[in-house]
């Protein structure tokens, strides 16, 4: 039974690492998106997204500034 238990542990370990890597990437995307939009709180939004998961990401998407509103120049 030991090899079977070790196999499940490896699967769960890889799954956990994949989920963590996904949220690191999503947090980085939020940081770069907020920076591109000229938001001063880009680091805070990256942390909120990483800690809050899907809920943090949804809050960011709902609250973020419109990219056309932050640009200056002709319409």
UniProtKB/TrEMBL annotation:
Cellular component GO terms held in the UniProt record: plasma membrane
Organism placement in taxonomy: Archaea, Methanobacteriati, Methanobacteriota, Stenosarchaea group, Halobacteria
Protein's UniProt keywords contain Transmembrane helix: yes
Bilayer-spanning residue ranges: 7-31, 43-63
UniProt source species: Halomicrobium mukohataei
Name of this chain's protein: Cardiolipin synthase N-terminal domain-containing protein
Domain of life: Archaea
Signal peptide range: none
Main location as per UniProt: membrane
């Amino acid at each position: 039974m030991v090899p079977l238990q070790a196999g499940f542990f490896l699967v769960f370990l890889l799954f956990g690492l994949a989920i963590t890597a996904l949220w690191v990437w999503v947090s980085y995307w939020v940081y770069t998106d907020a920076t591109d939009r000229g938001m001063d709180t880009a680091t805070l939004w990256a942390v909120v997204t990483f800690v809050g998961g899907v809920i943090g990401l949804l809050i960011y998407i709902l609250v973020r500034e419109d990219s056309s509103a932050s640009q200056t120049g002709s319409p």
